[in-house]
Amino acid sequence: MVNLEWYRTFKAIYKTGTLTGAADSLFISQPGVSLHLSSLEAYVGYKLFDRTGRKMIPTERGKVLFNAVSEPLTKLEDVEKNFQKSTEKHTPTISVGMCFETFQTTLEQYVSTLPFNLIISFGEYPEMLDQLDKGILDLIITPKKGTSPNILHEAFSSEQIILVGGKNVDTESFNEVIATKGLEHVEEWLKQEKWYGTTGDMEHLFQFWILNFGHKPNFRPNYIVPNLNSIIRCLKGGTGLAVVPDFLCKNEIESGDVKLIWEGEKKLENTLYFGCRKKTNYVEEIDHIKGLFRKMMSKNEALIV
């Protein structure tokens, strides 16, 4: 069965004459418009537009299809508008992408207070950037910027990647090695300890090791757990090491359950960005979530300082 959105996109292209114009009028990305059009053309079995430079010229079959669907689509859109006006309150739904640990540490506690519907998505950053560009996600929290001209990136905070350990780790011995011996001895000391890692993301450990020792770690963590928050809980048992973002363990460091072992010879910091499309129907809702993140991050920075 044909997707109704394909017809709406077809109508927008027909009226605006360009893929960019259709994307702007529908508040979706240009790749999304192209995908809808190619899907509709594959469904009906013939080309609907001739692409001349930047202009989309309807074919004869395209004109016939437009005449057939234009009036029914207009009536359907009118019904939709009247239905929305007749309801007491239309609650928007927005989709937000971020890593699991960021959600648990920041937004999770506020979900029940939000005045709109929310869908949270977890995934790899390149995948989330692609979904944002295609209109699947409305907002992402990411340490990586994409290259799409349709996406705005706004820096709002930073995270430092640090080496932490359980409260029973012999930090006096480690500090002595730091003070009296070279980095190769520091590396050897660290490799003698038990290490924690996660099933999906070893990037923090790799970046930290490359920055300070010039190569990737040549060992595997002893314990692989589901996520970074699991690592923090395991470290509270007293032993082991891990490389994690500082905001995830600020409370545990403050309480003494987890120790800050080393910030590195060179500090590793990531800038955190809000990513959203330039054209969106959910400016108010997105600003609300941004405000919650700024509130949490400023609180975290105050505690860490």
UniProtKB/TrEMBL annotation:
CDD domains with a match to the protein in the record: PBP2_LTTR_substrate (cd05466)
Gene3D superfamilies: Winged helix-like DNA-binding domain superfamily/Winged helix DNA-binding domain
Top-level lineage group: Bacteria
Record-annotated HTH lysR-type domain positions: 2-59
Matching InterPro entries: LysR_HTH_N, LysR_subst-bd, WH-like_DNA-bd_sf, WH_DNA-bd_sf
Keyword Hydrolase belongs to the record: no
Glycoprotein listed as a keyword: no
One Pfam family, short name: HTH_1
Family: Belongs to the LysR transcriptional regulatory family.
UniProt name for this protein: LysR family transcriptional regulator
Organism: Chryseobacterium ginsengisoli
